[in-house]
């Protein structure tokens, strides 16, 4: 598999090298970095080129690196069933940058881009319906940014007891758990559920 990906990497650099900032093989996968200006052209080439045929859009996500000037990565995963290969297309963007929407090339990018917008605040130009997907109407901020505070916000939920929508401060509902990693085969310091019957 790595040989075919190396050949694909060479082919991409030779045929569309001006669109590719970097390419590398990592853990058996081909990573290609591009720019916002070349993003749609590269995706279209990867889909339509007879040697590539990356016709299956897997997903798209954002990654936050707050220490960088261009703090976000937009990461797109594609699959070529014909070549039995996967490729990861990445590009960097800043908080105020706008990325062209991939929905013109892959219709399946629609909700993934909405999620990246909702969670990170990444803007996609040309998207048919760029609005929040997972957070509530009127929600302020972007929850997956690494500088997003974990307290001080309100959550909205429907309460069955009062039969209406209620606003309350965000709380971590799950208490911290104390896991023991003892093997039940080697014996424990306490009685496991069901073992209490053994002594009777």
Could you explain the architecture of this structure?
It is a single chain. This protein is an alpha/beta fold and 200 residues long. The protein has a domain at 2-134: Beta Polymerase, domain 2. 18% of the residues lie in helices and 29% in strands. It contains 3 helices and 9 strands. The protein has helices spanning 2-16, 39-48, 109-120, and strands at 20-26, 29-34, 56-64, 72-80, 85-93, 98-100, 123-125, 154-159, 164-169. The strands form 3 sheets. The protein has a 5-stranded mixed β-sheet. A two-stranded parallel sheet has the order 6-7. Strands 8-9 form a two-stranded antiparallel sheet. Strand 4 (72-80) and strand 5 form a beta hairpin. The protein starts with a helix and ends in a 31-residue tail after the last strand. The mean pLDDT is 87.
């Amino acid at each position: 598999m790595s040989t075919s990906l190396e050949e694909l990497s060479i082919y991409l650099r030779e045929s569309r090298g001006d669109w590719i900032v970097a390419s590398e093989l990592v853990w058996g996968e081909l990573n290609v970095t591009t720019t916002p200006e070349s993003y749609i052209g590269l995706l279209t080439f990867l889909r339509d080129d007879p040697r590539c045929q990356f016709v299956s859009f897997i997903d798209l996500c954002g990654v936050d690196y707050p220490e960088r000037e261009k703090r976000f990565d937009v990461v797109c995963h594609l699959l070529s069933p014909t070549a039995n290969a996967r490729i990861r297309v990445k590009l960097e963007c800043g908080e105020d940058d706008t990325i062209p929407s991939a929905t013109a090339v892959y219709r399946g990018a629609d909700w993934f881009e909405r999620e990246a917008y909702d969670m990170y605040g990444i803007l996609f130009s040309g998207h048919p319906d760029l609005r929040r997907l997972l957070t509530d109407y009127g929600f302020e901020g972007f929850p997956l940014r690494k500088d997003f505070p974990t307290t001080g916000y309100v959550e909205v939920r429907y309460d069955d007891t009062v039969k209406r929508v209620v606003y309350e401060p965000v709380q971590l509902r799950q208490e911290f758990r104390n896991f023991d990693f003892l093997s039940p085969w080697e014996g424990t310091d306490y009685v496991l559920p069901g073992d209490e019957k053994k002594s009777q």
